[in-house]
Specification:
Rossmann fold, alpha/beta, 6-stranded mixed sheet, 215 residues, globular, two-stranded antiparallel sheet, 35% helix
Length: 215
């Protein structure tokens, strides 16, 4: 993956080859600038590689047009970000209902409340993001990410804005949801303790895989 920067091409990911099995929990670690977030963006089809290919569940992501890509993402991928990305003018339940509405699911608000109950926020559906703690906002974001039961969940520094105790609870939740649904989880983290809880940890440095080991 090479991107133009100040008139020159900067290599972000170089010769990375990664295979993740269905149902696996994989942590991607490495210093800032090592290409961790770019890797997730490529898997989700948010970025396009300058060379190579990406396949998710047998679908060649790199060959999809914009409409197909949007449909693929909606059906296949849930994304959890470090900074939650909730819509401030919508309640927690309305935020979770957004992907359900876009997919034409019946009773999106009722379904959203069920998702909130699954992440321990049954009583908070009517609250706006500003009325929730960081940990609660991340729970809402997780409920939204799994609202359509995607087979693949991508999490980019999901505990990065949280204290260690709250972060540990978020990790517990992600792992529990992953087990219950039999989905695949790929998470980017700086946190060695979090990475150690994955089935496998992949370390990136300067755009290359420097090691990958099973926990």
């Amino acid at each position: 993956m090479r991107l133009p920067s100040g008139g020159r091409l900067v290599t972000i990911l170089d010769g990375v080859s990664l295979e993740v099995a269905a149902g696996e929990v994989v942590a991607v670690t490495g210093p800032s600038g090592s290409g961790k977030s770019t890797l997730l963006g490529l898997i989700a089809g948010l970025d396009t590689p300058s060379a190579g290919s990406i396949a998710v569940g047998g679908v060649e992501v790199t060959g999809l047009g914009e409409t197909e890509l949007a449909r693929f993402r909606r059906r296949t991928i849930g994304f959890v970000f470090q900074s939650y990305h909730l819509i401030p003018t919508l309640t927690a339940a309305e935020n979770v209902a957004v992907p359900l509405e876009l997919a034409g699911a019946p009773g999106p608000l009722a379904a959203a409340r069920l998702r909130l109950a699954e992440v321990g926020l049954a009583e908070r559906g009517h609250h706006y993001p500003a009325q929730l703690s960081g940990g609660e906002q991340q729970r809402v974001a997780i409920a939204r990410a799994v609202a359509l039961a995607p087979p693949l969940l991508l999490a980019d520094e999901p505990t990065g804005n949280l204290d260690s105790a709250t972060g540990a609870q978020i990790v517990d939740l992600l792992l529990a949801l992953n087990r219950e649904r039999g989905s695949t989880l790929v998470l980017v983290t700086h946190d060695a303790a979090l990475a150690s809880r994955a089935d496998r940890a992949i370390a990136l440095r300067d755009g290359r895989v420097v090691n990958g080991h099973h926990a």
